[in-house]
Amino acid sequence: MLAVLNLTKKKFSALSLKKLAEDFLKKYKIEKAEISLVLIGDKRSRTLNKKYRQKDYLTDVLSFSNPDFKIGKDNFLGEIFINLAEINRLKKYEAMFLELENFKVDEFLKASKSVKEKYLLYFIFIHGLLHLLGFDDEDDGDREKMLRLGANFLKCYN
């Protein structure tokens, strides 16, 4: 289901990410899928973003979907790279969440740093999973839709 490779020194619960992936795939009616999740830092994030997207800057998540994926078959859906260093840049996300309708910004702002970081890891992971399913955020409307889908999924998840 989910293979996790942590290339950083930051600790996290791989089990909770696996459960999150299972629940997400169930919601989207995908019973069998293999996903690779690689946790990286700034340097690798920038290198991969430049190599595969021709964008020379840091990013929080990169997703590479398998174009041959078939629902119902036990095969590889894709690979997600999450820059864990981005999760520490909380202000960036606080501003983004302010734009989301029905997002409980006050609760998020009052939460401890560790709770915020856990939420952001989950949020970014869901964002990456949405990319694997074909969602994109190239324009503001699509971006807002993806952010809303991620926030709504996590609201039901907690």
Outline:
The chain is 53% helix and 16% strand.
Could you explain the architecture of this structure?
- The chain has 7 helices and 4 strands.
- With 158 residues, it is α/β, with parallel strands linked by helices.
- The protein is 53% helix and 16% strand.
- The protein has one domain: 3-Layer(aba) Sandwich (Collagenase (Catalytic Domain)).
- A 4-stranded mixed β-sheet has the order 1-2-4-3.
**What is the strand arrangement across the widest sheet?**
1-2-4-3
Tell me how many strands there are: 4
Number of helices: 7
What is the second-level CATH architecture? Answer: 3-Layer(aba) Sandwich
Number of domains: 1
Structural class: alpha/beta
CATH homologous superfamily identity: Metalloproteases ("zincins"), catalytic domain
Strand content: 15-25%
Helical percent range? 40-55%
**And the CATH topology?**
Collagenase (Catalytic Domain)
Regarding quaternary structure, what we see is: single chain
CATH class: Alpha Beta
* Unreliable parts: none
Distance separating the two termini: 21 Å
* Largest beta-sheet details: 4 strands, mixed
Query: What is Rg?
Result: 15 Å
What is the 3D shape?
Answer: globular
Mean pLDDT: 88
Q: What is the string of helix and strand elements? A: EHEHEEHHHHH
Key features of this structure:
single chain; 158 residues; alpha/beta; Collagenase (Catalytic Domain); 4-stranded mixed sheet; 7 helices; 4 strands; globular
